[in-house]
UniProtKB/TrEMBL annotation:
Transmembrane segments: none annotated. Its EC number is 1.1.1.85. Its cofactor is Mg(2+); Mn(2+). InterPro entries: ICDH/IPMDH, IsoCit/isopropylmalate_DH_CS, IsoPropMal-DH-like_dom. The keyword Ribonucleoprotein does not apply. GO terms for biological process: L-leucine biosynthetic process. It is an enzyme of class 1 (oxidoreductase). Homodimer. PANTHER family: D-MALATE DEHYDROGENASE [DECARBOXYLATING]. One of its GO terms (molecular function) is magnesium ion binding. This is 3-isopropylmalate dehydrogenase. Residues 6-356 form the Isopropylmalate dehydrogenase-like domain. Keywords: Amino-acid biosynthesis, Branched-chain amino acid biosynthesis, Leucine biosynthesis, Magnesium, Manganese, Metal-binding, NAD, Oxidoreductase.
């Protein structure tokens, strides 16, 4: 029996629409070739360009579409010259995280054998870990509401038991899923600064309490500064890392650097009922409309979406297609034959997306 899933698509700003179109094309072809699921797509307006035209970055109708959809696929958002009156950037993706309580920001970091990386990789080593960033509170809690006077500025870090316990449960469940699939060591590392801040001692205490519920998964701790060092020195040792919002924001870009750039960095923001999938990179308005944008992170985000839907709805075909799509992108990147300019190649958006389709060999 074919199950229908509706996807809300936010095409975004700058290069956003250029990378969304081939991604949806690939998803349509994969769904059309399956007897076990089907996909419909609802285009949903939001973003900086929409704000410039209407004064509304995320219309209520778009929020309603997002809430009623089975998943949300969101392309690059924001334009540097379009900002709110207080000078902050237009960021509907953050508004969605908070409105839908998408507490788990999932940032995979993968470097396969043969793939270019700025690191000198020992023979036989690969990188395959996931950084989970709490996405609704932490140091982003007072975003847009910080206190600023002539002589000082204050932002408030918030860590709650409610969100943290959900976050840690998600992290250990993901570690088990990865271990069962043969991708992970079955290890979760809590990244914090518990030696200095009481808030992070509280964070670590809740992590340890959840770890006690998972005797089959190894649990350990690392301070955020040491973690940044080890991500460069021995990234292949990590499996699942979980951390606060700001720390995760910074470390996820370091993870993208290990892969060769943000053009290979997908992400998901996941809650109990909803999830958003989007590339980590920006909207790159300087190359918009030229067909030069790298679609790989967008396509990898779509692969994460298929996997999440497959897990949530016990649809094995979707999980299989999510893996196939991820491995197709990884194979194209590792071969080095068709790469976009940000990765040292000469090819454009359509060539790169076409190479992924070829690797999928959809009948």
């Amino acid at each position: 029996m074919t199950t229908m899933f509706n996807i809300a698509t936010f095409h975004g700003d700058g290069i956003g629409p250029e990378i969304m179109v081939p991604t949806v094309k690939i998803l349509r072809q994969m769904a059309d070739a399956s007897d076990d699921y089907a996909l419909t797509f609802t285009d949903t307006p939001a973003g900086a360009a929409h704000y410039a035209k209407t004064g509304d970055a995320l219309p209520e109708t778009s929020m309603q579409i997002a809430r009623s959809s089975d998943a949300i696929l969101l392309s690059a958002m924001g334009l540097p010259d379009v900002r709110y009156d207080d000078g902050t950037e237009i960021s509907p993706q953050i508004d969605l995280r908070k409105a839908l309580t998408l507490f788990a920001g999932v940032r995979p970091v993968t470097v396969r054998a043969g793939q270019h990386t700025p690191l000198r990789m020992p023979p036989g080593h690969q990188i395959d870990f996931v950084l989970i960033r709490e996405s609704t509170e932490g140091l982003f809690h007072t975003q847009g509401r910080g206190e600023v006077t002539k002589d000082e500025a204050r932002e408030t870090l918030l860590i709650t038991r409610d969100i943290s316990e959900k976050l840690f449960r998600f992290a250990f469940d993901l570690a088990k899923t990865r271990k069962d699939a043969g991708r992970g060591k079955g290890r979760v590392t809590c990244v914090d600064k518990a030696n200095v801040f009481r808030a992070f001692a509280f964070f670590r205490e809740m992590f340890d309490a959840e770890a006690a519920n998972h005797p089959d998964i190894n649990a350990d701790h690392a301070y955020v500064d040491a973690t940044a060092l080890w991500m460069v020195q021995k990234p292949w040792d990590f499996d699942v890392m979980v951390t606060e919002n700001m720390f995760g924001d910074i470390l996820s870009d370091l993870g993208a650097g290990l892969m060769g750039g943000l053009g290979l960095a997908p992400s998901a923001d996941i809650g109990l009922d909803h999830a958003v999938f989007q590339p980590c990179h920006g909207s790159a308005p300087d190359i918009a409309g030229q067909g030069l944008a790298n679609p790989f992170a967008m396509i990898l985000s779509a692969a994460m979406m298929l996997d999440w839907l497959g897990i949530k709805h016990a649809n094995a075909a979707m999980r299989t297609d999510g893996t196939r799509l991820r491995e197709a992108v990884e194979a194209v990147v590792a071969s080095g034959d068709i790469l976009t300019r940000d990765l040292g190649g000469i090819y454009g958006t359509d060539d790169a997306a076409g190479a992924v389709l070829d690797a999928l060999s959809i009948a």
